[in-house]
Structure formats: structure tokens, C-alpha cells
């Protein structure tokens, strides 16, 4: 069997330019021992790894070139495994709790977990749903390590660290048979006569939508205010309701939703901004600091100094 020791012998010969004497010195073994080991590898595995000229190694066969590349890859992986094992040995296993309103969890949690789970195998990531008030309270009390929340909010004034990581715009979502479905772009004055299906008042998005409409001198007609975006969508079918949702929602439409609904832009749209937040007054472990930096790097944001 070609184990790590035999691979190291083979690689040493290649990396010492096929000079057996130098390769043996680098391995702290005798030249005859190295020569015998190479012959044993080729015999046991039934492979010809080296080009020979008058009994001397002068290069690699195609098979040898392939094996050398794979050995380099395996040794890099082996070193990565050892490094990660040492990190786990030196750091106690941690649990990191990430909290957010339901839609933000659905939109961002999977990408964050995918980016972090292999890099931090010693960390157990827990995801929790929370509204704006519950998230702020959980961060301040140390129940949550990381939060995701839409802006604007009052988290900065509460002493929390907040940084915008993503942004977009709100769009109008309505049924294909809605009276406004034929328009290419909607005006706010066209939207407000119809009942709105929007997030509930305990979510910052509710105030954002209502206040934005009122700031235009218009009065919103709230038909349904609920916590689930999918329930908001279901309320649009066979009704004249309109929902205002961030454009990113389109990524989660089912085939049925795609066939029955339209998502239309609104002139002078409401901005959609998502923020990363945490309590900087709670001492962070080295791992937690690295997790923060990794999440912010996902959105091309440089991690500020603690």
C-alpha cells in the first residue's frame, strides 16, 4: 500500500532533481535504503514511475507525473487536517447562535453556514428566529452571538455593533390578473388604493414600508400584516392585494408562484438594507473574531478593529 512515508520518499527524489544522494540526505536515511524503497513501491504497485537512463533517474513517466501531482495534493490536505486538529485541540468547542427574523434566516443562513462549517468544524452553529425587539434584547443579554436585521433600526443607539452587509430594493408583488399587472413600473399613488400584505408591526420592515408611504403624503391600506413572507404571497392569489417585498424574494418563488405572480418595480423604491450586528461589549474569543471576519468577507466588507 502506498502510504504517506512511501509518498514522501517518492516526492523527495523528484524534488531533489532525481538525485538519490541528496534525496536520502533530506530524508535522513541512507541512499541504498531510499533506492530499495523506490524499487519496492514500483514493484508492489506495479507502476513505472521514473524514466531511467543507464540506471539513473532522469525524469518522470506520465504515470509518475500524475502520481507526483496527487501526492502533493494529499500532503497539502494532510497538513490542513493536522492544522485544523491542532486548532480544535487548543480551542474549546464553541456554540455560536445566529438570530434573525424568519425571512432573513431563510435568505442568508444557508449561505453563511456553507461558508463557515468546514472552516470552523469545532463550532456548533445554532440559528434562531427573533423579531426586532427580541433580537436586540438577545444580543444585549448575550443570548445571541450574531444578529441579522433590516435597517433602519435603533441598534447602534443601544450600543450594538452594526454594519450593512447587503442592499437592494422593494418590489411590488401581485397576481397576474391584478388590475395593475400590465404595468411595467408602478407609482405609489397607484399602489395605495389596494390592500397591502406586509410583515407584522413587530418587524422593522413594517415601519419602513408604512413610514415610506406616509412620507410621500399617501395613506397605506394595510390588509394583512403577518410574519411569514410565504403567507403574504398566498394572500395575493385570486385577490387584488399587493405585497411589497425585497427583490431577493424572487429567488425563493416556487414554480406555481412564478406562473401566477408578477414582481414589478416601483418608481422611487424603498431601499432594502440588511445589517450584521453583535454586542461588542461582550468579550469575543479568537474563534468568534474569525467568524465575524469571515461573514463580513462574504460581503466584501473589511472587518473593523475590535
UniProtKB/TrEMBL annotation:
GO terms under cellular component: cytosol
| Claim: Manganese is one of the keywords in the record | no
Which keywords appear in this protein's UniProt record, sorted alphabetically? DNA-binding, Transcription, Transcription regulation
- The residue ranges of the HTH lysR-type domain are 2-60
Care to name a GO molecular-function term for this sequence?
DNA-binding transcription factor activity
Q: Which InterPro entries match?
A: HTH-type_LysR_regulators, LysR_HTH_N, LysR_subst-bd, WH-like_DNA-bd_sf, WH_DNA-bd_sf
Q: Which domain of life is it from?
A: Bacteria
What protein family does this chain belong to? Answer: Belongs to the LysR transcriptional regulatory family.
Q: What is this protein called?
A: LysR substrate binding domain protein
Could you tell me which species this protein originates from? Mageeibacillus indolicus (strain UPII9-5)
Amino acid at each position: 500500500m502506498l502510504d504517506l512515508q512511501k509518498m514522501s520518499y517518492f516526492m523527495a527524489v523528484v524534488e531533489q532533481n532525481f538525485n538519490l544522494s541528496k534525496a536520502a540526505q533530506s530524508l535522513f536515511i541512507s541512499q541504498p535504503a531510499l533506492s530499495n524503497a523506490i524499487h519496492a513501491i514500483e514493484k508492489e504497485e506495479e507502476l513505472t514511475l521514473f524514466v531511467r537512463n543507464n540506471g539513473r533517474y532522469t525524469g518522470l513517466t506520465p504515470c509518475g507525473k500524475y502520481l507526483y501531482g496527487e501526492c502533493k495534493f494529499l500532503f497539502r490536505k494532510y497538513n490542513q487536517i493536522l492544522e485544523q486538529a491542532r486548532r480544535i485541540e487548543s480551542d474549546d468547542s464553541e456554540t455560536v447562535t445566529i438570530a434573525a427574523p424568519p425571512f432573513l434566516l431563510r435568505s442568508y443562513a444557508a449561505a453563511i453556514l456553507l461558508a463557515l462549517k468546514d472552516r470552523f468544524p469545532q463550532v456548533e452553529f445554532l440559528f434562531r428566529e427573533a423579531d426586532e425587539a427580541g433580537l436586540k434584547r438577545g444580543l444585549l443579554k448575550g443570548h445571541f452571538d450574531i444578529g441579522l436585521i433590516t435597517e433602519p433600526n435603533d441598534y447602534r443607539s443601544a450600543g450594538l455593533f452594526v454594519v450593512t452587509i447587503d442592499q437592494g430594493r422593494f418590489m411590488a408583488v401581485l397576481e397576474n390578473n391584478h388590475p395593475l399587472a400590465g404595468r411595467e413600473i408602478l407609482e405609489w399613488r397607484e399602489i395605495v388604493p389596494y390592500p397591502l400584505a406586509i410583515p407584522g408591526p413587530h418587524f422593522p420592515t413594517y415601519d419602513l414600508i408604512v413610514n415610506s408611504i406616509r412620507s410621500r403624503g399617501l395613506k397605506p391600506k394595510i390588509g394583512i400584516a403577518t410574519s411569514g413572507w410565504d403567507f403574504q404571497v398566498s394572500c395575493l392569489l385570486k385577490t387584488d392585494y399587493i405585497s411589497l417585498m425585497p427583490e431577493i424574494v424572487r429567488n425563493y418563488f416556487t414554480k406555481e408562484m412564478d406562473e401566477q405572480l408578477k414582481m414589478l418595480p416601483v418608481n422611487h423604491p424603498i431601499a432594502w438594507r440588511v445589517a450584521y450586528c453583535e454586542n461588542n461589549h461582550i468579550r469575543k474569543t479568537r474563534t468568534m473574531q474569525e467568524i465575524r471576519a469571515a461573514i463580513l468577507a462574504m460581503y466584501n466588507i473589511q472587518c473593523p478593529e475590535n
